[in-house]
Structures are given as structure tokens and as C-alpha cells.
Amino acid sequence: MAGAWLALAGPACALDPELPPERYTITRWSADDGLPHSQIHDIGQSPDGFLWVTTWEGTARFDGLDFSEVARLNDPTGGRRPSRRLWRDADGSMLVAVDGPGLLRVPAVGAARPACRDIDALQVSQLAPGVDGLPWLAARDGLYRLQSDGRCTRVAGGQSLAGRTVNGMLAQADGSLWLGLRGGLFRWQGGRLEALGERLGLPAGEVRGLVRDAGGDIWIASEQGVWRYRGGRLQAVRPERAEGLLLDDSGALWVAGTDSVVLRHRDGRWHRWGEGEGVVGYATGALFQDREGLVWFGTTHGLFRIADGPVRGIARQPGLPSDYIRSVLQTADGQVWIGHSLGLSRIRDTRPELLFPQPGTQPSSVLALAPAAGGGVWAGTYNRGVLRVGPGVPAPVRPLATGDHPLAAEQVRALLEDPDGTLWIGTERGLVAWRDGRFDPQPLPGLPALPVRALQRSEGGRLWIGQLGGMAWREPDGHLVVLRPGQGFPAQSVFDFLHDADGGTWVASNRGVLHLRDGGWRQYGAAQGLRGSSVFRLLDDAYGNLWLSGNHGVARVPRRSFQAVDRGDRARLDVQVFDRDDGMPSRQANGGSAPAGWRLADGEVWLPTASGVAVFDPGLVMERGRGDVPLVIDTLQVDGRELAPADAGVLQPGSRVQIRYAGLSLRQPNALRYRYRMQGVDAHWIDAGTAREVTYTNLPAGRLRFEVQVAHAPADWSRPAASTGFELQVAAPWWARPWAVLPAIGTLLLLFILLHHVLGRRQRRHARQLEAEVAQRTAQLREKNQELEEASRQRERLVEQLAHQASHDSLTGLPNRRAGDQQLAMALQQADAAHTPLCVAIVDLDRFKHINDRYGHQGGDRVLAHVAGQLQASLREPSLFVARLGGEEFLVVLRQTALAGALSLLERARHDVAALAIAPDSDDSIACTISAGVVERSGREGADALLQRADAALYEAKRQGRDRIVAG
Questions:
Q1: What residues are paired with 379 via a beta bridge?
Q2: What's the confidence (pLDDT) of residue 736?
Q3: Strands 377-381 and 366-371
Q4: Does the N terminus or the C terminus of the chain have fewer Cβ atoms within 10 A?
Q5: CA 328 to chain centre
Q6: What is the pLDDT of residues 820-868, one digit of tens each?
Q7: Cα–chain-centroid distance for residue 880?
Q8: Residue 269 burial (CB < 10 Å; 0-12/13-18/19+)?
């Protein structure tokens, strides 16, 4: 690495001891995230703030976002060597125990070299501090001390440890050394090695770690659990097999349990994190506290971070059986209600309880929630309609409609209860209402029957409706305003609303964030710095920020940033994005259900994700966004060669310079913003946002200075968190040097005079020839262009005809079987993604053979064409699709349609076909009927299974006498 290493203080603090341990977040990184290997051997931190990890596949550095291998430790061919132990030496270099070369020293700049000045390849298995400040080294051939001058000296009698694997060492004030070995606890003293475990009463077994706390107690991690040695007595404190120990700055003891367990002991109490909190794999004993107080540990399955940051997750646990969360709401009594893929849970006094489904009933995804008058909530489900859930204990649950009522099996994604008791219900078929015990299927005449995703009522009494296909609002006087895509409305779908006191309204849509104010729209999307296209939820906090959720994480945007973009002061929003690196349980925030998040009474923001509830503390986000951040020049590359800035020398003209810089905040890496400038090149600071690399080419000659600054989002560049930089010298090109300039000027002057004379005469002669040739070529080109344009138009017409013939039946004009199969496959994918119902029907023309026999094939073809046209006219909704399968059979795909709706639509088509009077060439007319078999998709049923069931239902319709619709 080439760069500036900053001498920084040690850890500023430990994890917040006042925070309940369940509020901590655990984040994991593995080889899939850039680690060389998922098994972590040791963890450390260099003076500049990079986290270092050793693995089976070499050593890597981590800046909070990206891993980079320490290539200086690789073999000469570039192969990675297994790395074991890490140690930060007093001079700031990192010592790494590597298989083969042994203990190596990696300085801030320059090549790795043997850590011992007098020994080329000391194979070290463990390092520990001595009471005199000099490290102890447990090596393959004995016990050593690392002297301040770089020599490694074997202590007298140290050969007694030769061939033994040392897991832990702890220096004592009397000069002795406690050792954790495979054979138990030992003590080295005065050149002799003696067994200590049996004398103290420690059961036989491997000892994996040793640490002394502030009170002088010695803690022992062993195969037989965790033990404490105090005042000459040994006490067993935990039975779990332990692999490593760490004492943090608050005095808390951390224990790496063998199998997917991490423990903390503080103030006499233990807390345990396991697989339920995301701890997986066998512990390797690697435990470390960084300078920000975060705790890191390693297992066979990756690198883990325990943080007390502003983001935490609530995942699957007793009372919350699913971590696929759809909606979150807090009622006035402080209870938090969570709709998820397996039902409805409620959190009272920090503990979740499952309310629906009740024992003996089938689960259904709860998509929508709304406060209910009198307490409790209304819950909208995937296929069980609307539920009324009371506030008591136990909470009563009853359906709003039962039996054959149209609402009993409806999919509901938005709910709102008015003060007059009207319950507005957003379904896949549009908006319906429930008033005084009566169902109103069309409460707002003129509102399109499109799927509803959001319902809100603003302070002025407006009812706001978000749909897949636009939005609408109803004024208090009953006037309805409908906005459709392409008709002055800049989005296709609307998922949420947020209303300001000044009358403005924010809209979450599939085209980013929209702002309606003073009758006009402002749109903020990817071009303005938002990640992804769809925004599902909009919430504000007490600090002047908007919180946005979407499939690409959660973003915090200061309101003043929107205003700055509106004024033209800046082109992009200042966006702080949160994802797994910040403690979110999943990068994907769920939406399309209401409410897809809630701001709780204490100010916390709860948002549903695909792996639990993401909980944000806006106040802590703002607080953690202050203070200094280590800023380093990570790498400088000149024409592909990595150099230290101080060793760059004089660069040749035209050199390609790549500079990579990094602000090192392992707690909130996504919150950092950068700007840079190259003095002598850039007239102003360049706002880099989150980018951490810049490339310059063709730098001007002279002395230049590169500067970079880092700040917390939202960036306040009047008070950057840190600044750094370095100087570069670029040589002038040879032709710009004085010895070459003066002769070149004289030569060029003579050449210019001569060329001016010769070229002037030649130019006049050729000008006349060119004028004639240009006129001739212009006429030829005009003729050729006309021919090419006509040929292009003919080719386009032919391509359109061929494309239509390939996908459509020439007799009926309907899509053919191939197109029908493609549409069915697409409908299955859409149904899986949106969790919507899907029906498939096969329609057959009754007694078609009789028609062919009586009227001939021409008459039969006429009948097929008329019936196909009528089916297409009767089933004209956008969610329906009709294709000819072959012969007299037709395929009908009914997207976003449950079985009851499908039967109704097909019955309408059957009546319309029966009413046809088709006139053949003879005098009489032909009357015909159709039969159909229709099925609704179950679970993730495939196309073949659906078609087989639909065909069986069609066969049953034929058997029952034809001219009917039968559901399978």
C-alpha cells in the first residue's frame, strides 16, 4: 500500500453499555463479499484505521465497504499464503504470521520483510504483550522475545515449548508466563515449563484463551467452558466450550463460543448471541475491539461485527415466525403491529406475540394495517379479506366478511377508517368501502378499477388514493381528481404520500420521489442521486430529514437538500444510503403494502425488509455523523505502477495517475462524502459524493498538489471531518524545453513561408476542380439517398409483417400457441413477484366437427374467426390474454384475477358467443356455443400443471353437456 498512515489514538469507547444487548446489530461478511476466504484466523487494526484479517487465502484489509488483499504477503508468483496471527508493533507496522516465510513485518510503505532482524523465517503460532512492553512470541522451535531493535531472542529454556501449539499467552508481573496449550494450562517460569491446570483444579482439556481484567482476575477459555481465577481460587462460570476471549474498554468480557455462539459478561450478567441473531459457523477464537469500540469476531463462515449503531434489525423469533415483513404500524396505546408473510404479530413490552393465525386456522400474509376506532387494528390479508383485531389480551380476531361474500377472499393492500366509521379498502380490483355493515363495491364513481396501494387522509380532509396506474384524491365536497400516467402525471404507480404543513404533498412512486406544490410537480430520481427507481415509503423525522425505502435499501435525505436542488444550487441530492453494511437485516426494503413503515412515538423509524424489521434511530444517526474521521491516501498508481506519494518522483508527461482515498469509519462507512481537487488543474473542489477514486491524464507540467476532504452526510464542507493531500511534480515534454523551443520556432517560420507560397497556387487550381466534382457528387448522393430510404421503408414493412405472422394465427388474427405460452410464462413470473392470483382457462368450440361437416371448411373457418373476435371483445381487460391453441381450442390467461372473477368473465364471454348469428354462404345462420375449463393457480404451480388441470376441467364441461364453464 502506498499512502499516508495517520498516528491515531486507540479506541475512543466501547459499545454503549446502557443499550440493551438485543439492540446491538450483528453483520457478517464472507468470501461472497470479497474476503479471500471465509475462515477468519485473526483480526487487527493498523494505525491508519484499516481492519486487517488473516485467512487461509492470505491477508486482507477492510475499510468498512471493500476488502483488498495485502499483496505484499503473497509469494513471488502472486499466490496467496495462509496467514495466521496479527500484531501491531510499536513502530506502527503490522506483523503477520504467514505459512512458509514465517513472521513478516508489513510497514506503512515498502515491501514486507522478516519481522526478526536476525532470523529469516520464524514460524510463530501466538503473540502476546509482555509486562515490559516487549512482545512474547510462541514459535515452532520455542519461546522468543521481540526486542525493540528488531532482534528475536529465544529465552532461556524456551526450547521446552518446541513442537507445542500455543493457543494463548498471558504475562504475569513476576515474570512468568501462563500458556494455553492443547494439553491444558501451563506456566513457564525461570526457564522451566510446568503444568498449572491440575494444580488449580482446572479439568483436563485444551485451553484456548487467557485474559486479565481490570480487577486482576484471570479468565480462561477452554474445552470445559469459561473459568475465572480470583484470589487463588478457580471458579467455573460458563459451561459452553470457548475458543477465544476479549476484554473491551468498558470492562466487559467477550467469549467466542465454539458453535455459532458469542457471549458477553458485564456487571455479573451474561448475554448470549446465537444463530437466531445471525451468528453462524465454528468460532476460530478471533476477537477484536476496534478504535470505534465495535467488536469483531471470526468463524469458519466469515467476519462478524457487533455494533451499537443507529440501525438494528428485528428478525424471526418466538412470536414473530416470519422475517419477511410487509407492514408496520404503531397504535396510540404504544403497541407495535407487524404484518408478515405468516400472519400478524404484536409487540408489547418489547416482546412479540403472534395474533394471527390463531391455532387451528390457516396462515395468510398480512399486507395492510390501519388503526381501528376503539383500539386495535384492521388487517388486510393476501387471500382472507379484512380482519378486525382487538387491542386486548388475548386479542380477538374476526373477519369482516365470511362465506361467499366478495370480500371474504379478497387481497387487500391498503386500509383507512374514517371518523364516520367508513372503512376504505384497497384491493387488487380497485377501491371498495364498508359502511354501517354494508359493502359498497363502487364508492367513488369515476375512479378507475385499478389495484390500490395507498390510502391516506390529509389535514384538509382530502382522501388520497395511490394505484398501480396513477393516483387520485377526493375533495371534502366530493369532487374527484384522477391523475393518469402520460396525462400530466410523471409516474406509473404510487405507493405512499407524505403531507407538509404548507400544503405540499410528497409522493412515493415507481419513478422516484414526486413533490406536488402550488399545482406543479417536481421529480427526484436516479439523475438526482437516488438509488433505484421505486420508492415505497416516505417518513419524516424530528431533524429535518426525509426517510425513503426501496428495493435498494433505505435513504435519508435532508429536506434542505431537496430545496437546494430546486433552487439549482446543486444537481444531486445529498443522500445517505443504509444497507447491510450499516446493520440492516436486508438490503431490500419491502413495499407495495400500506403502511410500509412507521415513525414511532419515540422517534424511531421502523421499516419492513425481506429479512426482518429495520429499526433506525434518527437522533443517533445525526449524533454519529459528527467527529473526526481518519482519511488516508490508500493507493497512488502511475501508469499502472503502485507508488508511495513521497516516492513518486518526477512524473513523465502524459502519465495516467489513479488516486484512491478512503475515510475509515467502520461504524457508518456509507455516511461519508468526499470532495477533491488537483491544484493547478481543477479550478474548484470536485464533489465526489461516495466515490473514492479519481483518475487524471495529461497533467500539466509543474508542481501540483492533490487534496481530498471527507465529511459526514449531509456534507458540511465548512467543517470537514478530515483533510489530507500530497504533491506531485510533472516534467515538461521535451519539445517544451528551452533548448528545443528556439530552433523549432525558426524552422517552423521558414516552412510556413514556403508552404504558403506553394499551397496558395495549388489551392486556387484545385478549387475550380473541386467545385465541379462537388456538384456532380451531390446529385449522385441525392439520388442514392432516395433509393436507400425507399428500400429501408420496404424492409421495415416486411420485418413488421414477418414478426406479426410468427406470433399470430393467420385465420383468427389471435396470438398463436407460441405467443400464448410466452404470455403464460410471463404471467407466472408476475404473479410470483407480486403475490397476486392467476387463473388459466381452455375454451373449446362445441360440435365444431358438425359445423365443418355441414358447412364445409370455409364455413368452419368463418365460424372460428367470428368466435375468436367475440372472445377478444368480451375479454378485453388489460389483465386478460386470449390466444388460439390450435383447431377449435383457445387459451385465456387471467392475471390478477381470482377464481370467482374468472368464472364471471368467462360466463360473460360464453353468453356473448351464444348470441352470435354467423351467416355462412347459405341462407341460414349458424348458432354456436363454447365450453371452458378454468383453474386458479395454487402456490407456485407451473404452466404444464395449470394447463393439465384446465384441460381436465374442459373435459368435465363437455361431459356435463357442453355450453358451460367448469372450474377445476
A1: 369, 387
A2: 64
A3: antiparallel
A4: C
A5: 20
A6: 999 999 999 999 888 899 999 999 999 988 888 888 888 888 899 999 9
A7: 34
A8: exposed
**DSSP assignment of 405-464, as one string?**
-TTTT--EEEEEE-TTS-EEEEETTEEEEEETTEEES-SSTTS----EEEEEE-TTSPEE
Strand-pairing partners, residue 623, are none
Average pLDDT over residues 608-617: 93
Share of the chain above pLDDT 90, in %: 64
Backbone Cα Rg of the chain:
37
* Lookup result for grid cell 508493533: 89
Task: Report the pLDDT value the prediction gives residue 739, as an integer from 0 to 100.
Answer: 62
Distance, first Cα to last Cα, the chain: 68
d(CA 450, CA 443): 14
Give the burial class of 271: count Cβ atoms within 10 A of its Cβ; 0-12 exposed, 13-18 middle, 19 or more buried.
middle
781 pLDDT above the threshold of 90: no
Residue in 173, 166, 180 with CA at minimum distance from that of residue 132? 173
What is the band of 922 on the pLDDT scale with cuts at 50, 70, 90? Answer: low
- Report which secondary-structure segment, H or E, holds 945: helix 943-959
Distance from C-alpha of 44 to C-alpha of 50, rounded to nearest angstrom: 9
Q: Which helix (H) or strand (E) holds 850?
A: helix 848-874
DSSP letter for each residue of 606-649: EEEETTEEEEE-HHHHHHHT-S---EEEEEEEETTEEE-GGG--
CB atoms near residue 638 (< 10 Å):
18
Does the N-terminal peptide bond of residue 129 adopt cis geometry, omega within 30 degrees of 0?
Answer: no
Chain centre to alpha carbon of residue 662 = 22
- Whole-number Å distance between alpha carbons of 458 and 435: 21
Query: What tens digit of pLDDT does each residue of 4-53 get?
Result: 333 333 444 678 877 778 778 899 999 999 999 999 999 999 999 999 99
Residues 151-179 pLDDT 10s = 999 998 889 899 899 999 999 999 999 99
Grid coordinates belonging to 245 = 476471549
pLDDT in tens, 632-672: 999 899 998 888 888 878 888 888 999 999 999 888 888 88
- Residue 641: predicted pLDDT: 87
CA 480, 482, 488, 491 torsion: positive or negative? positive
**Mean pLDDT within 233-255:** 94
Residue 375, all three cell numbers? 383500539
C-alpha cell, 728: 506531485
Contacts of 889 (CB under 8 A, 6+ apart): 842, 843, 844, 845
> Which residues lie closer than 8 Å to 295 by C-beta, 6 or more apart?
15, 246, 248, 254, 287, 288, 289, 305, 306
CB burial of residue 10 (10 Å; 0-12, 13-18, 19+): exposed
Distance CA 248, CA 448 (A): 61
Can you tell me whether residue 666 is helix, strand or coil?
A: coil
- Nearest C-alpha neighbor of 127 from the set 94, 157, 160, 163: 94
Question: What pLDDT does 24 receive?
Answer: 86
- The contacts of residue 802 (CB under 8 Å, 6+ apart) are none
Whole-prediction pTM: 0.66
Among 85, 111, 81, 112, which residue's Cα sits nearest to residue 96? 85
Task: State how beta strands 650-651 and 412-417 pair.
Answer: unpaired
The arrangement of strands across the sheet holding 311-314 comes to 311-314, 612-616, 605-609, 598-599
Distance from the Cα of residue 111 to its chain's centroid: 37
CA angle 46/722/575 to nearest 5° reads 105
Whether the CB-CB separation of 343 and 366 falls below 8 Å is answered with: yes
Length of the chain counted residue by residue = 968
Question: How many Cα neighbours within 13 Å face the side chain of 111?
Answer: 5
